[in-house]
Amino acid sequence: MSDGSNKRKRLDSNSEKADKPQGGLTSGEATQYDRQIRLWGLDAQRRIRSARVLVVGASGVSAEICKNIVLAGIDSLTLMDDKHTTTEDLSAQFFLTTESIGKNRAAESIPGLQKLNPNVEVTAKEGNLSNLDEEFISQFTIVCVTGQPMHKLFAIDEICKRRNVKFFAASVLGFFGYFFSNLGDHSFAQEIKQTKNGEEFSKTEQHVSNFCSLREALQAPFEKVKGKSKKKVLRQFPEISFGIVVLEEYFKSNQTYPANNQMVWLTPYLVNYSLTFYKGREAFMNLRKTFFGLLDLDEDVLSEQVLNSLIAGCDCEIGSVSAIIGGILAGEIIKTASQKDKPYNNFFFFNGQALSGESTARLKAQWVTCNSRSCYSIH
Q1: What is the pLDDT of residue 279?
Q2: 52 and 76 in contact (C-beta within 8 Å)?
């Protein structure tokens, strides 16, 4: 496959030279992105226009991400994937069709993406995480990896940090999903509404958010928190976050999720009954007990209902959940590129059964001494 085979249709070069409005956008681009410019300003759109984004994994959640950032008018998108389309992909990945079955998912997604915005350079690259070396990553300003266990992303996250590349990771696990962001020391502008003499006005303030690495984010010493302080700390984290962390530990040990791929999709009403027969469920439950024991967590921080649903759907991607996770994450990528508004720092979890989403600084913790006792400070 040729990386240059899907180049965008450029506006006429003579008109570009003749008509360069402020901010470096052509008149055609200024017209195309007029509504966005009115929303977040010309400077923000110019910064979006210079973003070079790599998305790894052509799943349903990545399709939603790619759709939104291409429409927003980034400079270029490279979509990398090494998998061939299956019938299961068609339920969540809307750029794929029955004619795509057996063909590379990234390459098959390009025509639909290119139609959304001919002014964005969209290319496909066949590959996987092993192809993400430092030299390749340094070509981009933003890297987003989808559908991969967290422990496989530590090295990529660290490369991005060294190269000052913004890093995102996302995954959908049945009814649940999450994304993580490491933007390093990220500067952004935020409009603050104020009132003076009965009149409301907006004031733009400059801020910097500090992000931790993925490796650091997964090292919260919950076992050091005792008594009422622990209950206060645990309330800051959504229930599903604990389930996903245990699921990651299971995958790390077994190189698979604890669901039985031979079973058909189960309705929520049948889940509790049918999970008795799930391959790996007992091992997963034992791991939860051991893992929570090490962290000195009560097992009731993760209810049986959520736990069962997580195991039941952890090896499938539900289109509606992918749309929510992908849509919100695309907004975060746009915020990051534009340096406009405060980004989530650093995890976002979504519970599709409860129809709730929550952002939390999941496990980026500092321990300080307060009146001779341990205190927990979230960043």
Answers
A1: 55
A2: yes
Model pTM score: 0.84
Bigger pLDDT: 106 vs 238: 106
- DSSP element (H, E) containing 171: strand 166-173
Query: Pseudo-torsion of CA 231, 237, 238, 240, nearest 10°?
Result: -100
- Look up residue 271 and give its two tokens: 């889940």
DSSP string, 121-140: EEEEEE--GGG--HHHHTT-
Q: Which residues contact 77 (CB under 8 A, 6 or more apart)?
A: 53, 54, 55, 66, 69, 70, 113, 120, 121, 122, 123
- What is the tens place of the pLDDT at every residue in 152-179? 999 999 999 999 999 999 999 999 999 9
Measure Cα distances from 79 to 60, 118, 128, 307, 338 in Å.
Answer: 13, 16, 11, 33, 21
SS3 318: coil
Distance between CA atoms of 179 and 260, rounded to whole angstroms? 25
Amino acid at 77: L
Q: What's the pLDDT tens digit per position in 247-292?
A: 888 888 888 887 544 344 444 444 444 444 455 677 778 888 887 8
Task: Tally Cβ neighbours within 10 Å of residue 236.
Answer: 13
3-state secondary structure 77-104: EEEEECCEECHHHHHCCCCCCHHHECCE
Which 3 state secondary structure label does DSSP give 51?
Answer: coil
Angle, CA 94 vertex, CA 92 and CA 100 arms, to 5° = 100
* Distance from chain centroid for Cα 199: 39
Three-state DSSP at 142 gives strand
Helix axes 239-254, 304-313, angle to 10 degrees: 40
Secondary structure (DSSP) of 257-304: -SS-TTSPP--HHHHHHHGGG-TTHHHHHHHHHHHHHHTT--GGGS-H
